[in-house]
């Protein structure tokens, strides 16, 4: 089989139908399948998926990924049963474009190991690159290639790296940490902006703050995993200074009516502070791979 599409799902009954409808309209004419990894949903997610099986154009399967909470475990569980040479990832609450899979598979067939598609948050910061833009140097790594909700990888490369670190259980940074390992392993990584999804942003203010805060905490875990990449960053003094600067900027932002960006920075800084304190006094969990990485 050419490619397996893996979708992590948690309480996605209201959204996953739209994503499956989008996948059913793919122009890709190779052999492929869709695997939904149910991460312990308590709503009607399973019923919705089951209702698609008989009318879906390619094999559609459901995997129980409820053992550990988090997208890392869900995606790992999907990859374990995947039959495709390539694995593509998308999220349950977005919608892929009709040529999405075509584009990702084309890129992976061009001597590339990992490919990331268009990410909404980077729209104004990244030029229109193509598959020939291979990121191998440290300074280029912060291009928008995270192995998350719009990406694909050669399955054997994913297994060689051990998959996602499942100690990342809350929102954020499991894809970022994986890609650091991918770069260190000298995988060939490319950004292909023509692989597009219709991104669904979080609009509930409380959920936005929760995601930003959890992502800040998770980023500290990345620093702890890769101190060579972030020397001195995982220090209490560093994040205290960051929080002091954020508080100062918040006052400036209040005066200039530019609160949104400063609020985001402040919540991120708070997540960093809590993460560093937690790691300092409780210690970090060891990396938890569903698949033992090659040494």
From TrEMBL:
Glycosyltransferase 2-like domain spans which residues?
A: 4-126
Is Transport a UniProt keyword of this protein?
no
Coiled-coil region(s): none
Keyword Nucleotide-binding listed? The answer is no
> What InterPro entries has UniProt attached to this entry?
Galactosyl_T_C (IPR027791), Glyco_trans_2-like (IPR001173), Glycosyltransf_2 (IPR050834), Nucleotide-diphossugar_trans (IPR029044)
Per UniProt, the keywords (alphabetical) are: Transferase
| Organism domain of life | Bacteria
Q: Ranges for the Galactosyltransferase C-terminal domain?
A: 141-194
Q: Which PANTHER family match?
A: GLYCOSYLTRANSFERASE, SLR2126 PROTEIN
Q: What is this protein called?
A: Glycosyltransferase involved in cell wall biosynthesis
Ranked from the top, the taxonomy reads:
Bacteria, Bacillati, Actinomycetota, Actinomycetes, Micrococcales
